[in-house]
Amino acid sequence: MEVEKVIRRNGESATVILDRKMSSALNAITSKVNQNLFPYGLQKPFPGNCLSLMTATGAKGGLVNMTQISSLLGQQELEGKRVPRMVSGKTLPCFPPWDTSSRAGGFISDRFLTGLRPQEYYFHCMAGREGLVDTAVKTSRSGYLQRCLIKSLESLKVSYDHTVRDVDGSIIQFCYGEDGVDVLKTSFLDKFKELADNRKAVLDKLGSHNDKHLLSNPNGYISKLPEKLIDRATEFLKLTRDEKRCRYDINKKELMRLLKVKYLASLVDPGEAVGVIAAQSIGEPSTQMTLNTFHLAGRGEMNVTLGIPRLKELLMSASAKISTPFMKCPLHEDRTRDDAEKMAAKLRRVRVADVVERIEVCTVPFHNNNGRISTHYKLQMKLYPQERYPPQSELTVDECQETLRTVFMDAMDLAISKHLDLLHKINDIHAVKSKDMESQLFDGVDDSESGHTNKEDNGMGDGDGDGDDENEDDLGADAEKRKHQEIDEMEYDDDDDANMDSDSEEDTKDDRAKLGEVLEESEEGHILEDSSNTGKNLEAKQATTLQNEMNESDDEKAQSVKFKKNIKWTIHYESTGLHFEVHYALQGQPHILLAQIAQKTARSIFVKSCNNIDRCTVVKPEKKGTPMVLQTAGVNFEVFWNLVDCLNINEVRSNDIHAMLKTYGVEAARATIIQEVSGVFGAYGIDVNMRHLSMIADFMTFDGGYRPMSRQGMGQFSTSPFGKMTFETATKFIVEAASHGEADTLDCPSASVCLGKPVKMGTGSFGLMQNFCLEQPAM
Asked: Is the distance from CB of 143 to CB of 190 less than 8 angstroms?
């Protein structure tokens, strides 16, 4: 019963906290069991157990498959949470309501070797189905993401001066990956021991013929070793002297010469299509991501978007408003846990619903209000005592009462007006329907001749309708194509929803206009056909006048409802101690559910809040000796700047790229992009080379803004009309290019492919000049 009370009162947040605590405890038990069992805790230990041998040697399968067969399946999760409860509080009908046991929450202690019980089998099927659906849906999303990346980055290549340039010659990076080294040649660049032990082989391979050529710096663009590499080599030499790591004693000069030969041989080749390689390096591992969103351990109640949706936010759409913005900042080292909790309590929002213990509504249906009969509502609210308020929030009962007297009462008046407005609209719909029914009944009860003509007219009308349906069926293929295209666009372009909505609104307006014209024409035809019958003519005139009256009455009602929105429905209120009572009088209005309106309003009104900040939590440090971190859901840097005495604001971080760009500049935004993309992959244990990440971040921010890799980004920044046409909406880009007189230099790979020319990448990036001898040599 206590669990039910807490979950019903706090809703989603209580469920999340319970799930997180249960999952962490059960996962610890599962890992402990598996550590004791594998690989030597089985009846047949490791070398003699063929299944264990297969998984341990890497032939097929992994430790997860082995543990599910031999040990236990563990906690089943759906969208990062445990198995959800039904309205009754049960996860399955066979469990008691609000059962807190681990088995009822989806923890499976059975194994495949001895079989599953029916409840466990059902939970496992739920988790398996989610994995299948997620895989099927995810492939199209990740495929489209990779296509957007490749089309945006396809024209980036390394020039002969080791800069990375776009089609129009604009410099994206002055040195590829900031050190000019090819990703495929980085294997032994920082393995100093191996280089020293095999120095003769390295010099024979790289330095025999090309040693002088490499060390003489023929191009003059890259002549020095990176400082970081020199520092690491110097540190290696110190350790070598102390511990004698190498077979040969190697001095600094020889190591630096060896390292320089290796470094200059590892530089990226001019003409390398580094943009496409970076796009593939991001797109390929994104297909391995299984879950869309889940709660990371140590995040508190913060819900952080991860996986494909987060990559789409970062790279494709470059969203200005992201789904789960947060910011975090470490405290000064001398600050304690209590100081952190006090600050977090100051920044947290407190709603009216959090401080109200009980809401009661009494209704007097017939109340004499200044000689007029009205419905009288009494709303009574009891507040929690101050001891029950969130600790360290410094909230008082007087502040709560002040909020109720001012903000809450105004919000209630507005909410009641909106609710009444909605009820009037619903009643108007019923009234119009009933009048239509009456007119149909009156048309049907008529003499035989008029009934006959009505039937003919109705038949004609039905025939027109059938004809329209037939036309729609005839145009089925085109309509189907359009519908599929719209569905595909909606699936792929989440950001274009607003544009599509505006287009659909224009379409509906056009449809309404056409429908009005058709109705007018049909009415005129009806009157002309039956002009011989004066009774019919009079009936048509009466119908039109009735329609006009209805329209006028609707307009009057709309005006009256608009006027009612400004009315104060409150007639009396009392505010004493923990009790708050307010009376409402509604005259000539339909009955309303005041308790529901009050609950909804109480959830939306804040007693205490910071702008744009929803929640604030204290995150424990991952390493000992590091300070605690304050993390908020929502971004407002000024709030943290005001706490400069407690927070180290030089270390403030946020996942909102636009906020970082506006506040701290383009370099901070670039660093945040790298950090966020690597963080998305890091959650799944995927490592992407920093050269690819820095290249994508430089491409998105090289113009000083934050460029999306979508149709909008291509249309705004791409200088190749063919490149834009081969991506999406070819007609639009063709018209724009023709009307603005754009020219294409055919340097873009898409343009070269369109015209059957060799792509200007790799070996196609240079031309050969042949020295023709004009005079023939003498024989």
From this structure: no
Please report the pLDDT score of residue 562 as a whole number: 40
Q: Is the dihedral of CA 371, 372, 377, 383 positive or negative?
A: negative
672 within 8 A of 707, measured Cβ to Cβ: no
What pTM was estimated for this model as a whole?
0.71
Closest C-alpha to 39, from 15, 55, 16: 55
- Kindly give, in sequence order, each residue whose CB lies less than 8 Å from that of residue 114, ignoring residues fewer than 6 positions away: none
101-108, long-range: CB < 8 A, 24+ apart: 102/22, 102/26, 102/75, 105/19, 105/22, 105/75, 106/75, 106/76, 106/77, 106/78, 106/82, 107/26, 107/74, 107/75, 107/76, 108/72, 108/73, 108/74, 108/75, 108/76
Quickly tell me which residue has 């639009």 as its tokens. 732
3-state SS string for 147-165 = HHHHHHHCCCEECCCCCEE
d(CA 328, CA 325): 11
DSSP 727-760: TS-HHHHHHHHHHHT----S-SHHHHHHTTPPPS
SS3 383: strand
Q: Is residue 737 very low, low, confident or very high in pLDDT (cuts 50, 70, 90)?
A: very high
Domains within the chain, CATH numbers bracketed: 2-116 (1.10.132.30), 172-279 (1.10.357), 350-423+565-608 (3.30.70.2850)
d(CA 269, CA 181): 9
Give the CB-side neighbour count of residue 202, counting CA atoms within 13 A: 23
Q: Please write the tens of the pLDDT for every residue from 160-184.
A: 888 999 988 899 999 998 888 999 8
Instruction: Over range 295-313, report the average pLDDT.
Output: 65
Within 287-396, residue ranges assigned H as helices are 307-311, 337-347, 352-355
Helix-helix angle 227-243:252-265, to 10 degrees = 140
